Amino acid sequence: MFEIDAKGVYYRELNEDIRAAIEAGEKDIVLKNINGQYYIGTGITKKINITIEGVPGNDLAAFMDGPTINVMDNAQDNISNTMNSGKIIIHGHAGDVLGYGMRGGTMHILKGVGYRVGIHMKAHKKQIPTIISGGTAGNFFGEYMAGGTLILLGLDSKEGEELAGDYLGTGMHGGVIYIRGEVDKDKCGKEVGVMDTDEDDMKLIKEKLDDYCADFDLDCNEIMKRPFKKLIPVSARPYGNLYAY
Amino acid sequence: MFKSLALPEYLATIDKEKCIRCKRCIQNCGWSVYSWGGDRVQIDTQKCVKCLRCYHYCPEEAIDILNNETRYKDNANWGFSHIRNIKRQAETGGMPLTGMGSDLPYTILFDHLLLDACQVTNPSIDPLREPMELRTYLGKKPAKIAIERDKNEKPSLKTKLGPQIKLDVPFIFSPMSFGSISLNAQKVLAYAAKENGIVMNTGEGGLHEDLFPYTDNIIVQVASGRFGVNPQYLNAGVAVEIKIGQGAKPGIGGHLPGEKIPLQVAKTRMIPVGSDALSPAPQHDIYSIEDLRQLIYALKEATGYKPISVKIATVHNVAAIVSGIVRAGADIVYLDGFRGGTGAAPNVIRDHMGIPIEYAVAAVDDRLRQEGIRNEASIIAAGGIRSCADAAKAIALGADAVGLGTTALITMGCTTCGKCYTGNCSWGITSQRPELTARLDPEVFGERLSNLIKAWSHELQEILGALGVNSVESLRGSRERLRGIGLDEQTLDILGVKPVGR
Lengths: 245, 502
Ligand code: SF4
Ligand code: SF4
Prior knowledge:
Chain A has helices at 11-23, 199-216, 220-224, and strands at residues 2-5, 28-35, 49-55, 65-71, 85-90, 106-109, 130-133, 146-152, 174-179, 192-196, 229-233, 243-244. Chain A is an alpha/beta fold. Chain A has a domain at 93-243: Pectate Lyase C-like (3 Solenoid). An 11-stranded mixed β-sheet of chain A has the order 1-2-3-4-5-6-7-8-9-11-10, sandwiched between helices. The longest helix of chain A is centred in the C-terminal third of the chain and has 18 residues, at 199-216. Chain A is globular. In chain B, helix 4 packs across helix 14 (442-467) and helix 8 packs across helix 10 (357-370). Strand 12 (243-244) of chain A pairs parallel with strand 5 (95-98) of chain B, so a sheet runs across the interface. The complex binds iron/sulfur cluster (2 copies). One iron/sulfur cluster (SF4) binds at residues 51, 99-100, 409, 414-420, 425, 427, 429-430 of chain B.
């Protein structure tokens, strides 16, 4: 284990220190006293562990390919922008535009998330990204989604409460969203179909939630008791008839 | 299906006497205008786009592609394309699409600018005998430099320079993605870029493995769809470009329809075969200059501080926007003018939005100079550079280098027919159909494009020599060496040039 005290350290130096530690072969890095430093884990391509104590700043894990990052607190905006692989575990809330263009890897957030989460998430062959939030989400959840899995649990919400904001899945043309609660079709983009989950869905959810619950020490069976709604695009070609050739 | 009432634009004709029924036209036409009728070639002229592939490949010169003389009644108000587009829209309910840059007769300021030359009192330079420097470095330049000397008094540069892209000549190839153009067309660009010590740009379509040998001459692009973007990709080239907008379609996104995404394109973009590749108009993580700064620095962090370029369409407020982009930390700003090309854009957007590059370069250069930050970023002028003369004028107006898109495609056979969006390009440029793209030999056409760059470089040297300067650096932003002809006072004022005779 390798500790870096980030108190008062500017992000550029901090990230240089982290990269230098990785270069030197450190596999377990603990960042103490983090207070809003940007770009932690950005562009890192080694399978290492980073534990963050404090609240990291924007663009955590952008373009990241491999590491596992544990944030022991809340986190801010733009996490895992275009992330390729790896895992991020956030023991609190996270902000807006999470997982933009994310192509692979996993993001587990214990609490709620902000606006535009999972937008333009995509999948490629074996790479299927997953974002699970234990709370609620703001507007534009899964906008332009092209692949991967988004799960919203609403652990602190009452049965029947809506968990996501307006424009849910607008422009969605791939992937799947599972919501543990009610979904108002009027709040969804017109490209989205809302349906009940079937057996295969529940198997997939269970598999994903086992991993999620292990990260936060939660009771998976308890969470699975409430029904989920499934949102998928009604067409892979939402804008097929827009043009005169 | 009813018969379309939109008049055909062209009449494809075959001289029956000359035709030897070799069927080459049938093979060559990407739009299936010709078919075999048992004893002769049949023509469906409604489909003809006047790309002229058949004309060039008919061994007997039997083919003529005529403009359809049957026009709607003469009407100075209702033009042919107005009526034709209304009919097409009434029949389909869709937006008419188009390819290439706008073909409408807006004033082209390059054609109203003349360069100076030396006579008697200030000698010109003969570039054939004297050195003439075209080398250009793209990137941030320091506001001032400090020199230090070692104990032998040998001077060296103390100031730490930011990362630079070295260009042997001030031309680069405009971003064109694999998907919008064929892989062979990208290889042509890569080949010529390497030959001439300049760069091409992947556009937003990822980097195909066949281009790996050329990565010293490649800028990789990141746009809203993030196609093909991963750490390897970001670090592959000499710089990363954030695409905000495109001159032919400012304010709207890209949309590569699923049927144009075969396996190779899908693999390079890292998406499933046959799904639409949507690049939404805004990058949803950028709503402000601060957000842009955040992405610029995320890319710098992810690439060990390579130069970052930001590409925008030139719109009304371009000068203020570029000021913001430079302050956000961009090393290069790529200005794509109103007449810039596209693989596909709705007509209504292409022909009516944005401003021409000449105004934009002048306004941007002025603004950055006024604010004392012109050195902070290099400016690329693109979107309507048709000749070395245009390039020289753009540089004199303030650009560091110019971007060539359509010009490069024309060396590959393109005739600017404007139907790139169909994916049927008979020249194999803007198509993914293997039987069409196989026609474009990367080496043969790479040589031709290389020739063009060499020819323009010679021309530029001649221009500089005639101006009596020995480096392109001396022409940069030197508007005193330009005069406007037939331009009103206000336009001259915006361009910062005097009228001819003054
Ligand atoms: S090859 Fe081109 S010009 Fe010839 S008929 Fe086909 S579309 Fe028309
Ligand atoms: S690239 Fe092909 S389709 Fe596009 S304008 Fe040129 S010739 Fe026509």
